[in-house]
Amino acid sequence: xxxxxxxxxxxxxxxxxxxxxxxxxxxxxxxxxxxxxxxxxxxxxxxxxxxxxxxxxxxxxxxxxxxxxxxxxxxxxxxx
Length: 80
Hints:
The chain is mostly helical. Helices cover 55% and strands 0% of the residues.
């Protein structure tokens, strides 16, 4: 079990970086939830391919999705 924030973040990124997880969970999330998740994944050290996988899995399932404020390679968006 992680004992500090850095270990917990690395564990989070490892667990939530699986493509199967993205394809199962992303369709159930709202756009703002996916944005928050990919910002956290990126901050935790996840690869751009992981971020792209989450965004693609979500966009493919959300007909009302108009795109996201966060894209692979971008800095995490500041909270508003």
